[in-house]
């Protein structure tokens, strides 16, 4: 039986002999409590407060979905191509095609302001743990806990908004350890951000979905913007100088960025729920919706739809890797070993362990409610726009009878959705009906009413052809006439009447369970912090972190992955696939100078990253940018719930590779000079 680098055959797993790894909870250290002693012990490296401060101030949060950094004294910002794809292409002018041709501003005057784009620089950190926890401790129920917490967050932000050093900052409360610690972060927000350089899609996403989450890799997944202040390029002393000399095998490397979300503190019971229910559901949902979008885009050829497909396919591969990890008995045994170790340590500190038991019992109850609460939810992604709208109309009609004033306030929301296309609407509804038939069963009353002897595809076509919910006048008459919604014979409304009650009943039971679980997870987070302190870093929360790793290859496919790939490999892959599919190259890349082929392109390290780290700079001990994170390998995907550095690798664009492409292909001399001189 073949196994992964991490897995072992089920028969060989002796769960009671498996031990938790020292870094199963990861290495996403916070700047609130920088890991000075750990860095010294691990790398014989002694960074002082100034090193961490300068590192923090050079790092950026790119909008609300990626990371970035300053890389010159003139406000030049580096992030990924895939982070810039939507915002950057938003400034395309008539006759231009950034996906096909890329973009480079040859002069400052040609740099294009991106409407709505901003970057945030973390300049203030305040520990507010005691204050928030005291407020939470006064709460009773789970719902009251959440309300008191949010109220205290707002009070703190209002209080600090006018304090010296905080005026004009974007204030955000960051939760660590699920409530074991809290901090108030103050961000300096820059709203004038202009596009400087973005490569073609074929280079930024070379290899497409087949190469995604793989290594060796050949992608120029980078882009550059510039921050302006009062109409001029921002002058800053906080930036990472480019180091083109490469990285050495075994060299310590640090990633500075904003990892989005991990769930490493989840209990084994919760992870088993994800394995058996949540992730299989999401996987099926993404597969079917992506197929529908791809079929639609054959004729539509719409860039926004293409980005949607990329997003779905990226998520599908990532979630597939997480699911494979959850199905790996060795990894689950490691999680169980850590849970046992944690419980034992908690008991020694007289910490009660019934929190684990209650999380297990609430999770067991959520299992029984999962299907009705997810497959029957009024969600456009799940059911399509119109059936979701029909369910909302049913709930509005019931509200109008019981609480007329509340219904009046919601009246403006009862507007028919603007459909992207009838083809897509039918495809999404057909996918939903097929999924419901599979999961709920052919004898389920909702499934029988929806299909009425038809196939899911036939039923979707019939329902969309015969509904009048796309007609604003018809909807207004229903909403404004007493009993109009409940008496309507519209086929989608008739179906919504059957399904809405079931969903509302299930959801009414799920919400208090989820609120209780939030309280229990917060307790668990406090226990983790009480037992281990900052020796165990908190889960990712899209807040600024620094994580450490080393440049290191790994065994794969019966051979060894090199630490660095070169542009020669890019061309080998292009030639090997006959210049077809996602391995095509634009015309200007077809005849490269020999000097380019020897240049490094991508490299790997053992750093701990997750979604949100896209665009994070890779820096060395001298705070020099040596690379740009853009992906992980397949073995890194279980990182959402456990970090196992054996074969986990982060994949980055090499700093020298970015400059080589600009020098030899794009002739972007202005940018090359700025990156190599820092000016």
UniProtKB/TrEMBL annotation:
Family: Belongs to the peptidase S46 family.
Enzyme class per UniProt: hydrolase
Higher taxonomy: Bacteria, Pseudomonadati, Bacteroidota, Cytophagia, Cytophagales
Keywords linked to the UniProt accession: Aminopeptidase, Hydrolase, Protease, Serine protease, Signal
EC numbers, comma separated: 3.4.14.-
Function as written in the Swiss-Prot or TrEMBL entry: Catalyzes the removal of dipeptides from the N-terminus of oligopeptides.
Signal peptide: none
Protein name per UniProt: Dipeptidyl-peptidase
InterPro entries: Pep_S46, Peptidase_S1_PA, Peptidase_S1_PA_chymotrypsin
Pfam families found in the cross-reference section: Peptidase_S46 (PF10459)
Any single GO BP term: peptide catabolic process
GO molecular-function term, one example from the UniProt record: serine-type aminopeptidase activity
